[in-house]
User: Fold this.
Amino acid sequence: MKNKLLVFTAVFFSFLFFLIGCKDPYNPVLRYEKTNFLIVEGYIDGAAPTTFMLTRSRALTGKDTEPKIVEKGARVGVEDDKNNMNWLIETGNGGYSSIGTLNLNPNNKYRIHIYTKDGGEYTSDFVEFKSSPAIDKVGYTIKDETGDAQIYVNTHDASGKTKYYRWEYDQTWEFHALYSSRFIYDSQTGKVVDRVGDVRVCWKSKASNTILIGNSTKLTQDIITEMPLVLIPNHSQEMSVLYSIKVKQFALDVTAYNFWEAMKKNTEEVGSIFDPQPNQTLGNIHSVKDINEPVVGYVSAGNSFTQRVFIKNSDLPPSWNSYPDCPQIIVPNRKDSVDFYFGTGQYIPISNILMDGGGEGFTASYPNCVDCTLFGSNVKPVFWP
Assistant:
């Protein structure tokens, strides 16, 4: 029995080795299709400045590392079905915007008209003007199991005519370094000198980068309740002092909603060959000169609705606050010590002290504990309280 087991074991591992040894690397041949298609992002807004972003698609190759190809030098206008045109101003980096809010007639239909620098001409389909209902509430809940803060939006349309919604948001938050530094190391002179400006209080902003849509078609009333917008992890910097989110709501028609739903699936739900694969989601924008040229984007028109809320850290559970490990050390005010600790950037001076036994020195800590500008800006936003 023992010999049979040894023979079986030897045969099994020989067969296993044969299988492993027969595996050849598979390098699929990728076919790169024509690219450089125009991508149009924006909304014709009667309640806020109208802004559009024009970029170009690019091939997914290892050599293409440019994050975004912007369309410069274009002429972009908002046109109604009565042949009235409002031209937008180029703002740089592919952006085009109106000066203030356009005076739009809700009874008219609207489209975007684009002339590119290379002679291309593009228009979107004329769309009806749809006004968003008011946002009822932008609020948050604290999840019991994690302590995370879930930001949500509530809205409704008493007339029952909206049904399809889309949201965007901008976050801004104030955060503080643990220590307030009075000094800075001057690399030119090799000395510690007085600091000009505050690097303890900073602000940071971040825009939404996901597609947020919702509908009430399966409900008896046109109501959206606690639509999740963004999840703020427990102990995160965003809510360490004061947090603000500005939510913009758009009313969509069913065609626009279907476009954004397809885009959402393409960008967020593709994970393996068993998941839904990307479809050719183009939208309602077309080339005037070449009907076969793909153009990506969907243009809607209407009055958006915006609401901003602030959330104080003091409104959150006491366990929210968390600081990094920030020990203080003492650095003697000698050239060798100052150069070693401050010249390399591993520590930043905080304040001056008299050392035990005489002599002057500095308290110091890690840069992320002292200088908030490493993570944000110390320029206060104009809307901040």
